[in-house]
Every structure is written in C-alpha cells, then in structure tokens.
Structure to design on (745 residues):
C-alpha cells in the first residue's frame, strides 16, 4: 500500500479544532496511545511525531458498523487488511464486519481467527457472528461462545432469518449477552428476481422490481418479536418510509430497536437505472426521491441512529456482467464521508456535530464498542478531516481491492486527513 | 439518403418522430422489393451482420436473417446453446472476440434489460436490439406500426389496446413508446398481476376490464401469454384467463366495431386468441410477419448509412 500508518511513542497533533468543543484550534498530546494533554502543549522535548492539522477538525474516531470484508472466501475481492486500509482512508478507526463469508463466521474459532488476522492494524475489527449455524437459518449458532471470542452482534446478513421461531429465540437468547440481532430485512418471496426498486421507473424500463414492502413487512415482524422478547433489534440499511414509521413507533414504545442508513440511500435514486448500469444495483435497492428525503429527515430527527456503508466489494469480472447477472452492492468505505458532506451537511440536514455523532458515538453505542471520546486519560481514538475540499471519485485510487462504485467521477466534498488509534497514526498523502 | 439520429437501435423510447417516419417510409419501399420475382438487392453487399441470440428465438432470428440475405449482407448466427457462453465466458469477452472478426452490425437478443445498450460500450459495431428482457423490442414495435399504417393509413389519433401480459412484455413497451410518438392513443389491459406496478408511468390508459378496452380501441394488439406465467402463479389457470381476457368472435361482435387484430406470435389458439379470430378478415397477423422483414431491412440499411455518414464526417 502506498500510504500506511505508523507507530509512535508520543504524538503531537497541533492546531486541531475539536468538533463540539471550542472553535479555536488546540494541540493534543498523545503518549503511549493515551491522550495526555489537550490545549496548548508547551513541553515539546520528548515528542517523537508531530502533525500540524492547520485548523482541520478533530472528532472521535468513526465506526462503520456494516462492512463486508470477504475474508475468508473471496480474498480476490477484499481481505481484512485491504478492507481495514480502506476504512482507515475513509476516516474509520473501527469496523464491524458481517459474517456472511465463506465459510461463515458461525463459531468462536472463526471469530477468533478473523480477529487475529486484523491484529496490529490501526483499524479495530469487531466481527458479527451468524445467528444460525452455517448461516442456514435453522438452528441457533453458539452465540455465547462467539461473544466470548469477541463477536459484537449477530446476523445472517445477505439472507433474512425467515423462521419466526428462530428469530424469536435469537432475540431472547442474545439478551443475556447484551448484543443486538441484526436481521437482513427482506421477505424473499416478494423480492425474488428483483433488480431495482419497483415503481414508475421499473415499469418503464421493464426491469424486475423489489417493492419496499419486502423490507418493511419483515421489519414489522421483527419489531413485534422484539416486543415479545424484550430483545435488542438493530435494523440494517433501511430504505422504506414505512420502516421509518415502524422504528419510530417502536422507539416511542421504549423498545430496544435501532437502525442504520447507508450513504447511497441518502443520496441516489432509482432513476439512475435509466443508464442500465449495474453499478447502481443494490440490495435493498435505491428508491425514489421522496424516500431519500424521508430518510434524511428521519436521520435528523433521531429515528435513524447511525450511518453505515454496507461496503460490499465485488471483482471487476462480476461488474462487467449484465444487469441480471451482476451482483448487488458497492464499496462504500472511502466515499461515505464525502457523500455525507454533500448530501447532509451542504443541504443543512445535519450540523457537523450531528454528522459526527451518526458516524462515531451512535454506531459505537449500538454495538457497545469502546468509546472514542477525546478526553485526557482516554485511549486516543480520533479522525481528522475538513468539510470543504472538493475531490473527484477515482476508484483506481481506492485502498479497497474492489472498484464497484456508483460514485465514480462524481465530485464529493470533505477530505479525511487522517486517523489516530492508540499509538498508531495514519495521515493521508 | 437521409439518416437517423443514432447508429444503434436500442429501443423506441426517445426515438424522434422523424426517425420513425424515415424507417417506416424506407420499410414500405423494401416491402415492394419483397413482392418482386427476385426479392434481392445488393445494398449491403460486403457487410457482415451477426445475429447474436442469447435467448432462444425462431421468428425474430429468421426474420432478421432473411432481411440480411435480401440485402446481400453476409450473416452469421450465434446462439447461446452452441457457444462458449455456457463455459463461463463473459458477454463482453464473447462479443469482443466475435467483433475482432470485423462485424458491421450486431443484432442482439438477451434476457437482461439494457444488454443491447451495454453492448454499445464494448464494441464499435452498430447494435440492433432484438429484445432485451422485458425492456424493448423496437423492430417489433416498428413492424406493428408499419402494419397499422398499411392497413389503416395513419397512426395519428388511432386507438390501440395492448392486451395481456404487459408487465413482462418488451413488445408492449416498444409499441407504447412508438405509438405515442406517432400520435396514437394507447390503452393497456390485462389481469392486474400482469400489469406493471405504477403502470400509469408509461403514459397510457390502464384497465383490467376487457370490455373497457373493446369500447376504447380500434386496434387490438393481443400479446402471447407465456405459459410459465401461469405456472409462476400470476393467474390461476389458462381457462380463467381465456374467460376474462381471451379474444373470441363473440366478444369482437359485441360493440359492432370493426377491429384490426394483431398478435406478435406465436399464438396460443384458444387462450388469448381464438382460432377463428386469428384467421378472420380482421386479422393482420400474417402481414405483420412479412412487414417484419421489410422493417428489419430498413433498419439495417439506415443504421449502416448513418454510421457511414458519421465516419465520413470524422475522416474528412
């Protein structure tokens, strides 16, 4: 990799503006991975590494709680290392990887092995385990053993837990360990064969559609089961207005229900299919502009807890396929922030502090990840960035091994300048 | 010779009135040639056309092949079953390999919507869409319009009802776009499970009542019911389909109107159309078949002219 992180006994970040703090730049001194001083650092004698942030923002380190790293199984598309590099370049110091690898992460050995492979990287890896053994949707996997090995949540992502009884048991059992169940919300018989959102555009183009009801019917069921069990339910990548209403009602009832939204569902619509370009093929599919607006509003009012990319790498061979054969998904780690700045900050949907919360504090809370508070005595875990630099997406520059992005050539805004985690620091360029 | 706005024919949506006019006029002149004792002209001598059929087809492929032979082009056929496509080669690699053999025009049929358009990014040949999933089948739309002009003189103000499985029909979509551009009014009518969700987006009248369609229309374009739709559970039985949507003589007589009956074929006699309707004086089904060859000749020639004219421009 062209640029890498480095380790230092002591790190001095000069002239950073802490998001949510005072507007004037401060210096942050990190010693042996711990924040030692915030303010004006004067004793410069022992400092081994200094970065001048020149007034850039500093925030708690971001966490992307929905990524697919493809290892083990499809190392041609992504590895834990290349995915971690992509996360780092995208401003994330932590990622939660989905267990639908080949073989799936359905045992403590698999969780341990994945955690070990991520060891030593700046980006911390928090795997999810499968809900069911072999991800078959039949029998409950060893959730307790996987929690002990480091799993932070459970999901058969890629496929829904279709069986109601299994879903109920999963929600009930996982309660003991305080971890969420994340169900890929899709009624398969309704989504079957679909490529894009079912609506006016699919009617015209003759492309098989997926109604948003395929999502929200499953969410309705899961929320009822969360109510029955008092379990913790996290709804991934929501894309339906009705899902927003269901989650809103669940929260007002006091249920332990949270949800996330992807940058692409906050920015793109199904009209992109006019180009018949497989780069827009996502599951759940891109919806209409009124859904995009509703998702933005729900993010602002707190119904949607956090932003997660659903980073899903695919080999170029797969992306040369026609619309029917092409796989679903996009690589999102390195464009997430730029897409958010253009679609959420510039549009004044969110304030900067709110955006940072949706990328950092909120997702960490859902999965009980270590806090990344910028505070003396705490582990140093932060992201530095600006919100003004414009840049053009060029997938050939991605740290990810894959190139499948619908944002290619698009001008985004906001540059990630680097991240710190403990004694490790990465600076872009 | 006049030329078209594009050197590919990917669909009829967005194709300007003057282009459709030119194709239809040219097709009528070729139609005269087809009636000659030796129905062959040297127009495309030395050109090579590839019929690239990824999905099985008999009628469309034969019609294109015949059009190519009538124009003295060299044609070669590719079908999925006889190819390395089944050996895991991507569409792109297959088509590039073939194009390296100097192909002027590629006629493509494929099950994926947008596959003809995808092809334009891979190769330099002119591309003719011969059906891409449920998206479009532009030469079918054109031959249907030609047949209507031949029979009823003008498309303007004509009321056409397209009946049956609209949701999965590329024929319906090409007809809708073409007919609207040429000033006709269109109604789609079929079981609600075979109409697209938000069908109004197509800019047509939508009905699930055959009587409404019969009242509205001068022309009935009856689509073939794909038997797999019934096995897929979208309607309960062929018997029930026939009862509510089958075109029978009795139905045709109920409004004392003189309908023109079309069908893209192949027919399911006794399901969507009765034998006596298909063979009646109202039916122009066989004219459609002959006009299909003329329209495809016109498209092949016009795209080639359009390509040549552009090349001359860039060379000069």
């Amino acid at each position: 990799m062209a640029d890498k992180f480095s380790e230092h006994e002591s790190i001095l970040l000069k002239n950073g503006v802490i998001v949510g703090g005072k507007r004037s730049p401060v210096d942050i001194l990190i010693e042996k991975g711990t924040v030692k001083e915030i303010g004006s650092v004067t004793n410069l004698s022992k400092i081994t590494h200094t970065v001048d942030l020149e007034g850039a923002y500093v925030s708690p380190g971001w966490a992307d709680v929905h990524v697919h790293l493809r290892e083990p199984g499809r190392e041609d598309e992504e590895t834990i290392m290349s995915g971690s590099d992509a996360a780092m370049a995208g401003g994330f110091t932590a990622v939660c990887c989905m267990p639908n690898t080949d073989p799936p992460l359905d045992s403590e050995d698999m969780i341990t092995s994945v955690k070990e492979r991520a060891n030593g990287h700046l980006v911390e890896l928090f795997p999810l385990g499968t809900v069911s053994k072999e991800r078959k949707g039949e029998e409950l996997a060893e959730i307790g053993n996987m929690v002990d090995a480091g799993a932070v949540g459970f999901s058969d992502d890629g496929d829904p837990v279709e069986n109601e009884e299994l879903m109920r048991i999963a929600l009930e059992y996982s309660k003991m360990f305080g971890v969420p169940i994340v169900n890929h919300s899709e009624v398969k018989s309704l989504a079957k064969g679909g490529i894009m959102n079912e609506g006016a555009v699919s009617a015209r183009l003759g492309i098989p559609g997926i109604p948003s009801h395929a999502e929200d019917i499953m969410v309705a069921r899961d929320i009822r089961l969360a109510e029955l069990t008092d379990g913790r339910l996290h709804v991934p990548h929501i894309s339906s207005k009705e899902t927003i209403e269901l989650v809103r009602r669940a929260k007002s009832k006091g249920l332990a229900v949270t949800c996330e939204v992807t940058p692409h569902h906050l920015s793109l619509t199904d009209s992109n299919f006019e180009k018949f370009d497989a780069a827009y093929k996502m599951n759940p599919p891109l919806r209409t502009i009124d859904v995009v607006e509703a998702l933005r509003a729900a993010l602002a009012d707190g119904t949607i807890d956090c932003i997660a990319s659903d980073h899903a790498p695919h080999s170029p061979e797969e992306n040369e396929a026609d619309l029917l054969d092409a796989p679903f998904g996009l690589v999102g780690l390195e464009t997430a922030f730029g897409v958010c700045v253009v679609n959420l900050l510039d549009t004044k949907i969110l304030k900067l502090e709110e955006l940072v919360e949706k990328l950092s504090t909120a997702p960490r809370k859902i999965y009980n990840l270590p806090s990344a508070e910028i505070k003396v005595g705490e582990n140093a875990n932060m992201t530095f960035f600006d919100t003004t630099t414009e840049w053009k997406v060029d997938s050939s520059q991605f740290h990810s091994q894959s190139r499948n992005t619908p944002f290619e050539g698009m001008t985004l805004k906001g540059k990630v300048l680097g991240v710190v985690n403990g004694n490790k620091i990465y600076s872009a360029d | 010779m006049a030329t078209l706005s594009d050197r590919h024919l990917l669909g009829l949506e967005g194709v300007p009135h003057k282009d459709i006019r030119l194709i239809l006029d040219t097709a009528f002149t070729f139609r005269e040639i087809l009636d000659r004792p030796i129905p062959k002209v040297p127009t495309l001598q030395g050109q090579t056309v590839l019929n690239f059929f990824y999905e099985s087809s008999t009628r469309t492929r034969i019609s294109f092949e015949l059009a190519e032979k009538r124009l003295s082009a060299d044609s070669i056929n590719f079908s999925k079953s006889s190819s390395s496509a089944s050996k895991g080669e991507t569409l792109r690699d297959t088509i590039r390999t073939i194009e390296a053999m100097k192909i002027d025009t590629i006629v493509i049929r494929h099950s994926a919507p947008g596959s003809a358009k995808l092809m334009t990014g891979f190769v330099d040949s002119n591309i003719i869409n011969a059906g891409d999933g449920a998206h479009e089948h532009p030469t079918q739309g054109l031959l249907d319009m030609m047949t209507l002009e031949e029979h009823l003189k003008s498309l303007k103000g004509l009321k056409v009802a397209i009946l049956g499985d609209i949701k999965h029909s590329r024929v319906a979509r090409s007809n809708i776009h073409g007919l609207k551009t040429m000033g006709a009014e269109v109604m789609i009518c079929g079981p609600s499970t075979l109409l697209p969700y938000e069908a109004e987006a197509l800019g047509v009248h939508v009905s699930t009542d055959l009587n409404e369609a019969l009242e509205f229309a001068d022309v009935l374009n009856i689509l073939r019911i794909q038997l797999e739709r019934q096995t897929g559970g979208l309607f309960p039985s062929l018997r029930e389909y026939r009862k509510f949507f089958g075109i029978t003589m009795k139905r045709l007589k109920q409004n004392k109107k003189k309908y023109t009956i079309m069908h893209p074929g192949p027919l399911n006699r006794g399901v969507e159309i009765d034998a006596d309707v298909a063979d009646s004086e109202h039916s122009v089904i066989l004219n459609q078949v002959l006009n299909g060859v003329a329209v495809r000749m016109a498209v092949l020639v016009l795209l080639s002219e359009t390509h040549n004219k552009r090349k001359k421009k860039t060379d000069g």
Q: What stands out?
A: Chain B has a mean pLDDT of 92. The interface with chain A takes residues 13, 90-92, 110-115, 117-118, 133-136, 168-170, 173, 196-202 of chain B (CB under 8 Å).
